[in-house]
């Protein structure tokens, strides 16, 4: 290979102009002859005030065999380069310790194509000086020969410049080896301190490579392999609770049932809508026999984490040839989970008449559905679900904390076998994890067990009770459903009944087909809301007429992994934790 640099010039001197032209011509001829590559430095491409004083001439520049075009050099020198793209030229090079004395290259344009072996080949920038000017560029020619340029003065500075020049010489010559392992990633399943054993062999050390086993095999006696142990410290990575959509859910699980009585006059379809979108539906075709055995139900999830609108339609389709007759029907929101207390049963009823087509479609808004299902103090079971993940193999503990003072719900998910057990809140170390506690000071490393990227879905059912009168207790005593003196609707009944068949009953009492206000519990005295009692002058269908403040409950979800060693900075009281707060809407 040939290295070319200039640091002196004879201005307007014909012999010097001839010499630098011959340097450019002969350098191009050398590359064309396949004999080797070329490395250039300043001032091969230097202009001074726009004047052609120092740079070489001839075919090397005219046919664009190098990476750059001519440009004005700059004062002063430079220190430090920014690598534009990774390359073998930068193996073991510290970019901040590369420099140029006195001057450095300016903003040089890259060459595009060229003549001869440069045709169709473009210059490539590998690095710039800290001021953005040209530092290192390369070009590969059509015959496989290589050229490189280092935009530094011929007496460069910096402790890493020698390594850069070595690598550039090796690259353009295609000779000096610079072994470079392709980057790869290894993920440890657990935190701790580990030793990585790097072994090096070559073909003169008595080993051959077994490609089937992907291992070196000694073929000479006393063959020795070079080793280097690289210490690696792996910190714990906190688990993550998945948010938003689908990550955390809380809902009332309700059976939406349709019961149809009467003779075999037709088919009744019930559709339930959430925020205007169809959520679920059922259909009953009346047949001979008990209407109870023909009733059909579908699961309706009543979300309690956000505000929603609910509505339903009930549609009647008479059987062909039927001209008269009626089918009473009931829409029943009944608890899906049989627990005590279950949520309140809310019933809407009416009658379809074959001879009254105008009444075959009944629509109703359900603004108080969620409040009614909580049943004015009886409470209801709310289903909670959340997804969390850990990048390693840690066990995960889900800790559900309830603002109503009931004990926490703790579920421990074991990574090794996928089992779930109940934990006890004491010290995070003793929640009930399946692996021993990591002792960071002694580096008591356990073998990672289980599956990487552990992701689980946890569920919890919590009995939520509503405190309508804000007395700090649930409303199973004097806060009855009706509010009339002398009634026994839940008064002093501490267990609030079984939660079944004890709730609101809405009907189209006037049989006018108008169900729009069936669940519209207004607070006036005109009794126009088709309520369950129908007593003039009462506010019998509205629990909150005296207090319209929304009822809420706070829920805190904490997910912990089995590290919790305070071995690294964390946003929480201890590491290995993620936390979310939720507000449950009770009205």
Instruction: Note the gap between the termini.
Output: 84 Å
Helix content: under 10%
What does the main sheet amount to? 8 strands, mixed
Radius of gyration: 41 Å
Q: Unreliable stretches, pLDDT < 50, 5 or more residues?
A: 474-505, 508-547
Query: What is the helix tally?
Result: 5
Counted beta strands: 31
- What portion of residues belong to β-strands? 25-35%
Average predicted confidence as pLDDT: 80
Helix-strand category: mainly beta
Q: What form results from the Cα inertia axes? A: elongated
Could you describe the 3D structure shown?
The chain has 5 helices and 31 strands. With 587 residues, the chain is mainly beta. Strands 15, 16, 19, 21, 22, 24, 28 and 29 form an 8-stranded mixed beta sheet that branches.
Summarize the model shown.
The chain contains five helices and 31 strands. By secondary structure, the chain is mainly β.
Key words describing this protein structure:
mainly beta, 587 residues, single chain
Strands, helices and their partners?
Layout: E1 2-4, H1 14-32, E2 38-41, E3 46-47, H2 59-62, E4 71-72, E5 78-79, E6 81-83, E7 99-100, E8 124-129, E9 134-140, E10 146-150, H3 161-173, E11 192-200, E12 207-210, E13 215-218, E14 226-234, E15 240-241, E16 248-260, E17 266-274, E18 277-285, H4 291-294, E19 296-303, E20 310-318, E21 326-335, E22 346-353, E23 361-365, H5 369-374, E24 380-390, E25 396-402, E26 409-413, E27 420-422, E28 454-464, E29 505-507, E30 552-561, E31 577-585
Parallel strand pairs: 1-2, 2-10, 3-4, 22-29
Antiparallel strand pairs: 5-7, 6-8, 8-9, 9-10, 11-14, 12-13, 15-24, 16-19, 16-21, 16-24, 17-18, 17-20, 20-23, 21-22, 24-28, 25-26, 25-30, 26-27, 30-31
